[in-house]
Amino acid sequence: MLGSPYNHTIETPATFVLVGIPGLQSSHLWLAISLSAMYTIALLGNTLIMTIIWMDSSLQEPMYCFLCVLAAVDIVMASSVVPKMVSIFCSRDSSISFHGCFTQMYFVHSATAVESGLLLAMAFDRYVAICKPLHYKRILTLQVMLALNVIITIRAVIFMTPLSWMVSHLPFCGSNVVLHSYCEHIAVAKLACADPLPSSLYSLIGSSIIVGSDVAFIAASYVLILRAVFGLSSKSAQVKALSTCGSHVAVMALYYLPGMVSIYIAWQGQDMVSLHTQVLLADLYLIIPPTFNPIIYGMRTKQMRERTWSLLMRCLFEHSNGGS
Fold first, then answer.
1. For position 44, what pLDDT does the model report?
2. Model confidence over 205-220: pLDDT tens digits?
3. Could you identify which of 61, 189, 205, 267 might form a hypothetical disulfide with 196, taking C-beta atoms 3.0 to 4.6 angstroms apart as the criterion?
4. Which of 66-75, 95-104, 261-270 has the lowest mean pLDDT?
């Protein structure tokens, strides 16, 4: 029998109440200012990257196309949570509808799964570019890139749809106060009158499979990349390859390290780490990568840096001419 064992239609709350970061209510204003600044940087930076790649035909390569999709996913991920967080911290508007909560949950966790897949695709791109440069254009065709993006998206949907269904079909007959600043699935599932262990186990196992397999393949790609790089006779070619890969490694560290720590603490760290630390880590996990990804790629990737500077100078020049 696959039907839901719960009659949740009677006991479904109209709204949930998000408390923000428990124990740090006195710092909510400063947190709102910090989040607003980071969100602004994320929106401007990722939009700028997408615009530059879209406008510059010389950047219509697989690496930059994946970067463009990553920037779009970062905007979705940050926009799913930050505006509501700022609203909670500034105006105490902490209520969120039942359906709004699960919609937010779906988009947040789907975006994180898509981002992990994109990082794997970008590592594969670097592997082909450095280890098999003569076959690069033959292997990474437009059709292959589209197929990879579709597979990454389908994987996220397949993972997230059952999780959202399981949590949303739990009976919520008690408190509707979520001890979090967004609808994080474990925090919401804890409010259920029934045992949330099945959905929590599904989340843990699914996340471990996705992240574990992605990290394993990424690590294998970079082992092969480093072997190929140090086998190059030209020092300048080594430096260029390492510089390009360094950007990817920095972005992956920003994404995977806070994510793994956040997931582990949510499961095992209730007695070791305070609740406000757990929530703050989960919040930073969603806002730090979108904020710093465009900065890292913009500053460390020579082509992006040159195109960004050129676009900004052209805009300033046209504005000054228009003003005069």
1. 92
2. 888 899 889 989 998 9
3. 189
4. 261-270
Q: Is residue 279 part of a domain?
A: yes
pTM over 0.70: yes
Is 259's pLDDT higher than 80?
A: no
Alpha carbon 212 to chain centroid distance?
Answer: 16
Residues spanned by the domain of 133: 15-302
DSSP string, 253-318: HHHHHHHHHHHHHHHH-TTTS-HHHHHHHHHHHHHHHHHHHHHHHHHH-HHHHHHHHHHHHHHHHH
pLDDT at 116: 92
- Look up residue 18 and give its DSSP letter: E
| Model pLDDT for residues 39-60, shown as the tens digit of each residue | 999 999 999 888 888 887 777 7
User: For the chain, how many structural domains are there in total?
Assistant: 1
Contacts of residue 256, defined as CB under 8 A and 6 or more positions apart, other chains included, come to 116, 119, 211, 215
Nearest residue to 45 via CA among 244, 250, 254, 292: 292
- Long-range Cβ contacts of 152-159 (<8 Å, 24+ apart): 152/114, 152/117, 152/118, 152/121, 153/114, 155/113, 155/117, 155/210, 156/110, 156/111, 156/113, 156/114, 156/117, 157/110, 159/109, 159/110, 159/113, 159/206, 159/210
Structure tokens at 69: 């999709």
Q: Is residue 219 part of a domain?
A: yes
Mean pLDDT of 275-281: 82
Answer whether residue 310 is part of any domain.
Answer: no
What span, in angstroms and rounded, lies between the C-alpha atoms of 301 and 212? 27
Q: Residue 68 domain-assigned?
A: yes
Q: Classify 178 as helix, strand or coil.
A: strand
